[in-house]
Amino acid sequence: MRAFREKAALLVFAVVVGPFSGCRTGVRTVPSPAPTAPADVETAGRPASPTPVNATLARMGYTVQVGAFSIADNARALAEALTGAGLDAFYFPAGSGLTKVRFGDFPSRDAAAREAGRLHEEGRIGDYFIVGPADYAVMRPGPPAGGLREKLTATAESFIGVDYSWGGTTSRSGFDCSGLIRAVYQLNGLAMPRSVGDQYQAGTEVPKDRLMKGDLVFFSASPGGGLTHVGIYVGDNAFIHAPGKGKKVRRESLGSDYFKSHFSGARAYLKQRPPGIP
C-alpha cells in the first residue's frame, strides 16, 4: 500500500511540476537546541565559536529533510528533480528499508522553513522537517575527532549496496562518486564541496601509509592523469565508493592491482590525529 501511494504521488507531481516524487502531505518541524561549536570543525560562515577549531571544512547550517520512501527510486527521482531546480539535494538510506531526501544549506531555521514551505505549497514536496546544526554528529559529545571518524565510517557503510547516483542526467566524470562523499559528510554536519577536484583541494595532504577513517582517497582513470574518482577510507586498507551510475556502492581494497596503479593521493579533513600520525 505504501509503495502504491508513493507511485501515485509521483505521477501527480510529474503532471504539476515535473519528475518530483512525493509522500505523505503535511508539515512537521522539529526544534533543535542552540548549537555549540565542536572542537574539530571550522566555523567559516557560521556563528563564531569560543572554542578553537581545527578542520578544513565549514559546518552545515540548516537543511530540509523530506519524506521516508519505501521505493528508493522515488527518493532518487525527487533528489534529482530538486537538484535540477538548483536546490542541491541528495538521498540516503535511513534504515528499515526506507530512503530519505535532504536539500539545502540555509543560514537560519526560518530561511529553511520558508523555502520548504514554498515547495510544499507548490506541491513539490510532502511531509518535511528542518534539521539544525545541533542535530549533526559534529555537535554531539564525545572524542573530538575519533568519534566523528567512526560516525563517518558508519554512514559510508550504510550506503553499501545502494545504487547511487547524484546530479540527474549529468555525464560529468566523477559526479556520482563525489556526490556519495558529499552526502556522507553532510549527514554528519560538514559542508563538503561538490566535485572531485574541489574535494581534493579542500583537504590536507596525508601519506597513504598514515590514512585514518574518514580521510578521502583519490584516483585517476589513467596512471598520472587527472583526478576522476574519490572514495572514503574506512580502515584496514579499505575504502567505500560509488563506482558510477547504475552500479552499487561497494567496499574495495587499496591493495588491489587496479587501485594501486590508479591511486593519485589522499586528503584529510579532520586535523586531530593520534600521537605519531601527523
Textual characterization of the structure:
- Mean pLDDT is 77; it is low at 1-54 and 168-174.
- The chain has helices at residues 2-17, 72-84, 109-121, 146-158, 175-187, 196-202, 257-262, and strands at 62-69, 89-93, 99-106, 128-131, 204-205, 216-220, 227-235, 238-241, 250-253, 263-268.
- The chain starts with a helix and ends in a 10-residue tail after the last strand.
- A hairpin with a 5-residue loop joins strand 2 (89-93) and strand 3.
- The chain is built from 7 helices and 10 strands.
- The strands form 2 sheets. A 6-stranded antiparallel sheet has the order 5-10-6-7-8-9. It has a 4-stranded antiparallel sheet with strand order 2-3-1-4.
- The protein is an alpha+beta fold.
- It is globular.
- The chain folds into 2 domains: 2-141, Sporulation related repeat (Alpha-Beta Plaits, 2-Layer Sandwich), CATH 3.30.70.1070; 158-268, Alpha-Beta Complex (endopeptidase fold (from Nostoc punctiforme)), CATH 3.90.1720.10.
Would you summarize the structure shown here?
Helix content is 29%, strand content 20%. It has a 6-stranded antiparallel β-sheet with strand order 5-10-6-7-8-9. A 4-stranded antiparallel β-sheet has the order 2-3-1-4. The N terminus is likely disordered.
